[in-house]
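Support reply, case 0932

Customer input (verbatim):
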Amino acid sequence: MPRVGLDGVLDRLDRCGTLRRVPSDAAAAGFTWQLADRWDREWYPQGITTSADASESGEVGGRRVILTSWYAKSRRGRPSRGSRLSVVDWTEPARPRYRHVLLVEPFRDRDSGAVDFRPVRVHAGGICWYGGRLYVAATGRGIRMFEIDDLTAVPDRAEGDDAWVGRRPDGRYCGYGYGFVLPQSFRYDAWTAEGVERLRYSFLSLDRTGESHQLVAGEYGRAGATTRLTRYRLDRSTGLLETADGGHAWPLDLRSDRIDRMQGATLVHGQYAITSSRGAWLRGDLLTGPPGDLTRHRGALSVGPEDIAYWPGRHQLWTLSEWPMRRWVYAIDTSRFLPDLP
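Our regenerated output:
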């Protein structure tokens, strides 16, 4: 299986989105997916990150790129197909083209010794693209890590491959019919001291606007569940979390502002932008402001808002929505909701 990297996927995009007016008071510009992806009741969009997270220039290889994550629900008694990415070329906003990539976890078969892989079955509620590394939220199991350069083509696809993942008996590899897979490199396991509830990594984002670059993480919760926010310092030279003795990455803080149904959060020059959902039929809320002094903009977002990311060069926040036939990816002008930014 040849490793092709991001350019190899961007050169073979096979789907096209459509610019649409998003039913959201906050939306400045946005698009929706191809019809089959808008209707799909197996796969649900969750996380978002952009080439502005990956590079301070806002571009990678001369292109503006948006990555989104989806998770698959179990259907008709079959196991979940795991998680996938959509690689979107946003260089020409009038014609957003994209392709899906399956996330996989490599392993070595104990009997044959052959390298195989299986689906990454996590919720993927948030993603963060930092340099060449992609962080994927794995809820109670911590964070999964991928290298963008490891994007790999699946050659010699045949009929029936869409029902199979990994190494087939004839030695060929397939990934549920997807033309590309991204193999996991390693993971950060969630750990807490005895008597402390383990943090659920429901969503992730990047803060490039402070003295240090930081990974922002937080919890979705309702009906009395914890809804905490935390931050980790990133090592600019490696793209990894800064670690102390023993390889542990310790958080800089742990906040609990009791915001139910948080779906995403990011920090911009010390101010939060947080998305909060209100079910499948009511528009979501956007909360903005400094920690401890947030303003709730009720119903400002579309139905079903999810993760959120900041695009500094365009002075925009980006988010997306999950429900079938109500799925959009859209920008929000920061001047409306974070007016005091430098």
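We compared this against your earlier run and they match. Two observations from our side: The first strand starts at residue 15 and ends at 16. The longest helix spans residues 5-10. Please reopen the case if you see a mismatch on your end.
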